[in-house]
Write a structure and sequence with these properties.
Blueprint: E1 4-5, H1 8-15, E2 20-26, H2 31-46, E3 52-57, H3 62-67, E4 75-80, E5 83-89, H4 94-104
Parallel strand pairs: 1-3, 2-3
Antiparallel strand pairs: 2-4, 4-5
Pfam families: Thioredoxin
Family: Belongs to the thioredoxin family.
Organism: Pseudoflavonifractor intestinihominis
Length: about 100
């Protein structure tokens, strides 16, 4: 499954759907974000049916970035039942994300 690109409505629906949702806050002009993109895409495929994995473009959805205090990108936030569970700022190895996903599926 391809990574989902969220707008505000889709984002709110995803994080409140139950289960775990992983959201990458990014921008097209951000070099580290482009480095992280293949990792996010691989995780979306690996966790299909187990977790919702998507992205929010901070240029398009500035209000969402502000609402969640995203000051640096990439920032990956994990949600469960509509509440923030954890966050990782900067580029991390895939294991940093899979550890949180695996512990909360």
């Amino acid at each position: 499954m391809a990574t989902i690109h969220f707008n505000k409505e889709g984002f709110n629906k995803a994080i409140t759907s139950g289960g775990i949702t992983m959201v990458d806050f990014w921008a097209s002009w951000c070099g580290p974000c482009r480095m992280l993109a293949p990792v996010i895409d691989d995780l979306a495929n690996k966790y299909e049916g187990k977790a919702v994995i998507g992205k929010v473009n901070v240029d398009d959805e500035q209000a969402l970035a502000m609402q969640y205090g995203v000051m640096s990108i990439p920032t990956v936030i994990f949600f469960k039942d509509g509440k923030e569970l954890d966050r990782k700022v900067g580029v991390m190895p895939a294991e940093a994300y899979t550890a949180i996903l695996d512990a909360n599926i």
